Batch of 3 targets.
Target 1
Amino acid sequence: MNVERVTIQFLPGVVLQREVDYFNGINHFLVLDLDGTISDPLTGITHSLNYALHMFGYPEMDENTVAQYIGPPLDIIMRKITNSDSSELISHIIRHYRDYYNRIGYAENTLYPGIYEGLQYLMAKNIPMGICTSKRVDFAEKILKLFQLDPFFSFISGGDIGIQKTNQLRLLVENKIIDKTAIMIGDRAVDIQAAHENGLKSIGVLWGYGNKEELGEVSPYRILNHPEELKKII
C-alpha cells in the first residue's frame, strides 16, 4: 500500500493534513458520516441546543424532539427550530451552541456498540476510510480522539453554515481524495442523496436517526441493521 501525504482544504481558513492511503493503487474509500453513524450525539446536542435557545428566550426541547433534527447542517436545523429566516439571529444562536458544545457537549457523545470493532476489522483488511460530516472539522476531530478512532481515518471533511454534504463529497472527488468507487455510509437520507448526486454508491444504517422508510425512499445500495454488519460490506 502506498501512502501519500496530502493537504485538504474543505472550508475557508480550515486546512487539514492527513495521510491518504491508496488501496491497490486506487482509493476505494469508505466515507462515513459521524453523528448517528459512528457515535450518538443526542445528549450533547440537546444540552448545547437548550443552552443556546435559552439565551434567546426560546423554550427548551426534550431529547425525543431534538432527535428529529439530527443529521442536516446546523443552520438548517436552527431555522426549522426557531422558524426564523434571520441570518443574524441564526448566527448568534449557533455561536452560543458551539460555545457549549466545544466545552462540554462533544464529550457527551456515546459510541455505538460494535462500531470500534467494525472499524478495527476494516482497517485490518486495509480498507481506507474517511469522515464526511456536517460538523465542523475541529469538533469531529475531538470526538474521534475522544473514542480513539482517529487512527482509523485518513481524512475528515467537515461542514459549516451554508455547506451541504453533496458539496463536501464533490470536493473530495474533485481533489482526488476519493474517486467514483467510494461508498458513502450514513444514517440519514441526506447522506444517501449526497452520494447519488456525486455518482457514488451508498449504504444506509439503521442504528442512528434515520429509519427504514426514510432510507428506503432514497434507495441506498444496501441497508445495515447493526454495526457488526460493517464487517460484511467488503
Target 2
Amino acid sequence: MKLVKQAIEVIEDNCTGCYRCERACPTAAITMVGPRREALAVVDNDSCISCFRCIDVCPDDAMLAVERDEPRKVGTSARSVDPTELNALCEKAGLDPGQMGCLCSSTKIREMAAAVLRGASTFEELALATGAASGCLLYCGVPMQRVLRAHLGDRLDESGSKVRRYDSTQVLLEIDEAAADAYPLFALRREQAAARAKQEEKR
C-alpha cells in the first residue's frame, strides 16, 4: 500500500516534446499530445503513483511535483481474493507470498498476486493497482512479470509497453556476489540466504 501525496504538473513553456517522460512512466500516466516535433506532455494524475521518474529523465525541467489536495491510497489487499488461489498463483510464479516484491513501495508478492487475480493484466495495470515500480525499478520488475506470466501465460502481451525493465528470467540465486554487493540497499545476500534455507527445508 502506498500513499500518493504528490501530483505532477507540466511546465508547458519548458517542454520540448522529447518523449522521455512518456517512456519512463510505469503506469502509462503520461501521453504526448500534438504533432511529433511540437508534442507536449499531458499527465493523468489519477494514474500517477508519484515515482518521479518523469522528473528524473526530463532534460528541460518541465515536470514539477506539487502537493495533492487529498492524498490517494494505492494498493490491493491480499484479503480481497481467495487465499487458495493466491497461494497457488505465487507457487506457480515460484515466489513466496510474504516476500517483498517492491522495496520502494513495500509491496509484497501477495499484493501483486491479488491485483493480478483481480484483473491487472499488464505491467502498467499492476503498478497502478499496487504502487509497485514507484521507485528504483531495479528489483520489482522481475517478480511483477513472473506473477503476470504465471497467471496469463501466452496471453500476456507486453508489445505495447513503453517501460524498460530487466528480463523476468533472472533468478535471485543466480545473481553473483559482485552484483549483490553493489546494491546493499536490496539486501540480496540476505534474500539469497533465505531462499537457500527454504530450498533445504523442502529436501
Target 3
Amino acid sequence: MKANDRAADETSATGRRSRGRPALPVARIITTALQIVDEDGGEALSMRTLAQRLDSSTATLYRHFANRTVLVARVVDHVFGEVDLAPDVFATMNWDEACRTVAEAMFDALGRHRNVAPLLVGQIPIGPNALILRERCLARLLGSGFPPPVAARAYATLARFVLGFAIQLAGPAGQTDDGQASTLFHGLDPSEFPATLTVADSLPVPLADEFTFGLELIINGLRRFRVDG
C-alpha cells in the first residue's frame, strides 16, 4: 500500500546543503527513523540522532518535517503501509472476515515493529496509509448493514484493541516468565484462591491466544448491531 511513501521516494532535500553532502530522499529518512525506533525505542528518536545516523544535518530534516511530532506521524504511517490488504480480495470478504483480517494484519505489522505501538498512545493515525486502511474497513461494515455510527465505533474499537495488545509486545524480551507465573498460580492457597486454582492449568494465557479470543468476542458482539437488508 504505502501511498505516502511512493511520492516520498521521489522527494529529496531542497535548498542549500553542505558541499559534497548528497540529497536525502524522504523515504530514506523515514526508514532510518524507523530503524532507530526498532533498535532503541521511540524515546531514542530525535532530530539530532536521526541526522547523525544519516550523516546529515538537522536543518536538512527540518526542511521536510516541521518537528519531531510530524516525523513520528510519518514513521507510524509507514508501518501502517505494511498492512497489505489486496483491495480486490478484501472487497469480497464478509464483514466479519474483513474485521478479523484487518485486526490480525495490523497486529502483525506492529509486532514486526514492537516499539512503534507506544508512539500511537493518545493519537489518531491520519496518514494516507492509515486513512486507506480505515476507509476499506468502514466500506465493508457500511456495505454489510452497519449504521454509520456503529461502523465508526466498530473500527475504532478494533484499532484500539489491536493497539492495546501491541503495546504489550513492546516490553523487554523475557520480561514475563510464563513458567514462574504458572508455578505461582499453582502454589496459591486453595482457601483464598479456589477459582484461580481451578483454572491454573490454563494460566497464564499466551498473548496470541488472548488476542484471538478477544477479537472473536468483539466480532460476535458486533453481530447484534447489524441491520439486515
